[in-house]
Amino acid sequence: MNWNVASSIVYAWVITIPASAAVAAAKPGIAVVCSEYDKDRVPAVTMTVAHGQSFELAGMRVDAISVPGHTLGAVAYVIGDAVFTGDTMFVAGCGRLFEGTPAQMWDSLTLQIGSLPPATRVYVGHEYTLTNARFAKTLDPENPAVDRLLEKATAARAAGLPTVPSTIAEEKAHNPFLRVAAPAFTARFGDIGEVSVLAAVRKAKDEF
Fold it and tell me: How confident is the model over 84-109, as pLDDT tens digits?
């Protein structure tokens, strides 16, 4: 299969420095898009975007959403009824807090990505679903949405198939980082506020 790559959009500088440089070298003149914050950290950048900015990619409208947490310059891109979340949101998970704070991640997940329409398809940066579902089960054992995800992900990975995409509605049902206000989480971590619960969940996942 021959791919005609016209543009490269960058989610977070940490993982894309070698990728963007390689793509730019292989395809001179390609458009490389990243956040304004990361403009000095990503090689070969031809365009930067700010929160709420729209641009055209291969004839499609793309809306940029600033989603710091994993990194400070992380961006999610909305194209039609789909959102590409990079390493900020995974299926039933979120990225490690390499540069950002729990408050930033909470805002990015809950108020930014989580405010998209429920049917929005979620395309993530890594296939971590099975491990994430197993972790979610330890914190939210009575949640049938977690059980459904665990069954689906187990079957998909056994067959060599991807688990992506998810939807916003599904993430709100099974993603522990979007369920920090749910009774199962306040019962486990205490009534300490959503940001503090998210921080505790992230710590638990780091140690899982």
Answer: 999 999 999 999 999 999 999 999 99
